[in-house]
Amino acid sequence: MEEMTIKTAHIIAHSHWDREWYLPYEKHRLKLVRLMEDLIEAFERDPEFASFHLDGQYIVLEDYLQMMPHRAEQVRSLVEQGKLIVGPWYILQDEFLVSSEANARNLLIGILASKKMGGYAKIGYFPDSFGNMGQAPQLIRQAGIDVAVYGRGVKPVGFNNEVQSGNEHTSKYSEMYWESPDGSRVLAILFANWYNNGMEIPTDPEAAKAYWAEKLAAAEAFASGPELLFMNGCDHQPLQKDLSRALRTAGEMLPDVEFRHSSFPEYIEALRQANPDALDVVRGELRSQWTDGWITLVNTASARVYIKQQNVRSQTLLEKVAEPLAVMAHLTGAAYPRHELLYAWKTLLQNHPHDSICGCSVDEVHREMMTRFAKSQQVAESIAADSAAAVAAAVDTSGFDPESARPFVVFNTSGHPRSGAVRMTVDIERRYFDHQAPHEKYEAFKEEYRAFDPEEWIVTDEGGKPVEANIEPLGPVFGYDLPDDRFRQPYWAFQVDVELYVKDVPGIGYRTYALVRKDSLTKAESISPAAGGVNAGGNAMENRYLRVEITEDGSFTLLDKVNGRKYEGLGIYEDTGDIGNEYMYRQPDGEVPLTTEGLSADIRLVKHTPLAAVYRIERVWNLPLGADALLDEEIRSMVPFRYRKSRRVSETAGVKIVTELTLGKDSRSVGIRSMIDNTVKDHRIRMLFKTGLATGHVMADSIYEVARRPIQPEAAWSNPSNAQHQNAFISLSDGIAGLTVANQGLNEYEVLPAHNTMAVTLVRGVRELGDWGVFATPEAQCLGTHVLEMELISHDANVVESGAFIEAYQFPVPWTVRQTGVHGGKLPANHAFLEWEGDRLAFSALKLGEENEDLMFRVFNVSSAAPTTLSFAPSFQVDGVYESTIIEQRGEEMGRNEQSRYTVELGPAKIQTVGIRPALR
């Protein structure tokens, strides 16, 4: 006789805690304080109340204890006992809208903070992410975590649905395995009935009987075995104080089910012991591909684009400027600003929760976010400036003329060698304030330099060789020093604007140049225009690689002279109505998109030097003022956005759009800068790039991978829009030639089947939050002026094999320039602190360890198909080199090869961190 299997109902008490959403942060925090106070009381009075899951994020404790610091020891004790379960994340982020490094730092900071408070849950917790990154299993595996729990991205089909063979985005069960592109695999648990399927359990026997009849059946429909998961809580859910009594009632009503106040560690252990058979394997990104496409929440990628732009500025400043410069300065002898950087990172991460960075909260939330971005940026900028100054002061510039030279150091912190035009201001002379009145000193200074002639000056490299540059006087400008040992020192500085072309600056290093008087050179070489310069005229510009021709309507044709490909109809703007909300775009029924195709534009050449040409294209586009009055009524009455009937009004207003196209010397890309003065509502503006490339897939930058996604959605998809997430770029290629669009904070794209057109969202305006209530968000209309930046890169092959991904990743990273004096120093005029190479490898980070003085150097293989080799050589003495992980755990020691270099083999899609112990004296 077959033994009957006992079912266990694992009830996990929790509350999904959004720091800010439909209420601003402090109002939510007061609710959190109430919840935590109730929790502490429950643990004291009810011995059966076993544990509480704090939503997988440490910051709930940080927020609580900042307001209630006297509870710190009680909280620590509860965490140590396993009653309060925290971490591993610092915050619950949106995975796709923040950088790869931001995802890694969120995990690292969360684990370290949780450990200091008593321990953390080894669970990759993604309860409400709007889609899940494909590299999540590798990320958490590197942190020693082998289980993930999530709420979206996979469609469970249950026992009565046949799963298509090879389908990687559906599962029969709520339990499955999830695999990254590199092969990392974790046990994965889906909230098939959401993370509130055990909330508010009745204590009344009759109500409990009906409750559990429904809940048990729903769980069993997808569970692979007898271990059933029930989440006792929901968004900002207050504590169920009578939970113990409710579970006793359930046990009395249903004696054949064991009702257990459980925890994730207990449930996961029981699940493993049950040894479920034949679990499905889901692979890579989980973006709800196998659904109808209406509730993916993907259009949060275009809600409040200004938020996304500030985020890119902030995270780029931290991970690609401040940290590498701080490491360079540390290797030069400066103290590493560990605590300052941690503060800047935590401040930034507080903007990364899914209802924050997604732009899908009330207006007050996003106003506060802008302040946090500014705070993080200010710290990063100060660290970068101080670090650059420390390195520049140690550079030997004694080869320049001490009287006439104005040396400056050009830093490249992008991680890859880089060439291009760099622009900076250089002080010719400073005059510090003294007894003379400042305005009188200003006038005298200005008069003295009235006859300044930029033709008498030249830029040279460290060997005295002239470098292509443009020099323009700016006049006297106010400035000040803030010395460490004396009061502030204000001055007037006569400044010039210098634009020069630098070549092959090492990826983690610098080159030194100087502005000098020609008459100071013993042998002044003349500068002949170098190959690759830019010619312009007649609404066209070209260099040795590209030719750009602008048509009367402002669109342009791009001819790649390397591979002969010609792309026409690029840069057209498209506008449609949007009667959706901050989460989802919804075009009015029957509406035909408006475009600028055929509309005349004013086209002018506004800059032309051998280094660059810039065309400015101006137009005023008359667009509908917004949606009709029906939309207000549909929102008030909560008509689901999918079924709204509102249309746009016939009245129009002028929307001024200015586009600047830039072609640089030796460049195979076109810079695109769009300035949109948005004066209308309820709409979306995109830029279209018609490629004509024959391919069925788009390559999109995602988290630690370049994801290959089908252009055509799955058969179940019924949403007319197929917008998707991108991070730094999207790319199409037919295998022979390709086009890549890099961006700065423009996270939404769609590939339109007609001509395989890449559409990048620039501005989207809506009037409501959406989701579960009626929340007006007038600032989500994004009225006012927006400046959007992209780069169109032409290349051979695809974006990975051509190496074009490197230029796309470098696009948001600014050059750093620091002026210095003529002096000796222990560093050479040109220097690479860490020289490295490897096919298909992308630079991710260079920092010091959080708990040691070791350098942490991280790269990742952008190819999901081909292995590669990382080879590197520090320029400084080392005490050891070892393989590390995302959370900086030391692995195997590495030795040098015959060429005195360190090498490590990387499989496809591998994220590799290397620890380097410098022998600092």
Question: Short summary of the structure?
Answer:
InterPro entries: Gal_mutarotase_sf_dom, GH38_beta-1, GH38_C, Glyco_hydro/deAcase_b/a-brl, Glyco_hydro_38_C, Glyco_hydro_38_cen, Glyco_hydro_38_cen_sf, Glyco_hydro_38_N. Helices cover 22% and strands 33% of the residues.
Describe the structure.
Pfam families: Alpha-mann_mid (PF09261), Glyco_hydro38C2 (PF17677), Glyco_hydro_38 (PF18438), Glyco_hydro_38C (PF07748), Glyco_hydro_38N (PF01074). Residues 300-373 form the Glycoside hydrolase family 38 central domain. Belongs to the glycosyl hydrolase 38 family. InterPro entries: Gal_mutarotase_sf_dom, GH38_beta-1, GH38_C, Glyco_hydro/deAcase_b/a-brl, Glyco_hydro_38_C, Glyco_hydro_38_cen, Glyco_hydro_38_cen_sf, Glyco_hydro_38_N. Keywords: Glycosidase, Hydrolase, Metal-binding. There is one protein chain. It is globular and about 100 Å long. The strands form 10 sheets. Strands 20, 21, 22, 23, 24, 25, 30, 33, 36 and 37 form a 10-stranded antiparallel β-sheet that branches. A 9-stranded antiparallel β-sheet has the order 26-27-28-29-38-35-34-31-32, covered by helices on one side. The model has no long low-confidence stretch (mean pLDDT 95). Helix 1 (25-45) crosses helix 2 (59-67) and helix 10 packs antiparallel against helix 11. It is built from 14 helices and 48 strands. 22% of the residues lie in helices and 33% in strands. A hairpin with a 2-residue loop joins strand 31 (697-702) and strand 32 (705-710). The longest helix has 32 residues, at 363-394. The protein is an alpha+beta fold and 921 residues long. The termini are far apart.
